[in-house]
Write a structure and sequence with these properties.
Structural class: alpha/beta
Distance between the termini: 39 Å
Number of helices: 6
Oligomer: single chain
Number of strands: 5
CATH architecture: 3-Layer(aba) Sandwich
Largest sheet: 5 strands, parallel
CATH topology: Rossmann fold
Amino acid sequence: MKLVLVVEDEYGNAEIVKLLLEAEGYRVASASNGDAALALLAGEMPALILSDFMMPIMNGGELGAAVRRNPGLSHIPFVIMSGTSESVVRETFRDYDAFLPKPFEMESMLTLIARFISSGRPSLPDSREVGESMRQLLKGIEMPPKDRG
């Protein structure tokens, strides 16, 4: 069973996501902020990290940057979810694999997670570009634009 690390400071949101993921057959670990997530990562290797952006102590951008700096963790797909705009997230952290705007459709979240669990983190920047058919499949989920310089 694949492990998904859910990092979310709002307990109700974290529990809903956890229940949905468990119903899909994933094991779920959860943390209420980036600092707590890093402590969990010292003991277990998730197949994917699903992190809120705006959290106390260490936000999702800071967590993502710490994950990407660590060679033992940098291969893990990192999905940012937030009620704020993606442009605000990108001011702090750009090396995420997908942006999930809140509120989101649960089915879209599950589709996105299944995609990353089965294929892993894209190894080449060009592989982040998603065709129109995939955009329709993942309706409402925004992929970050490829860095151009």
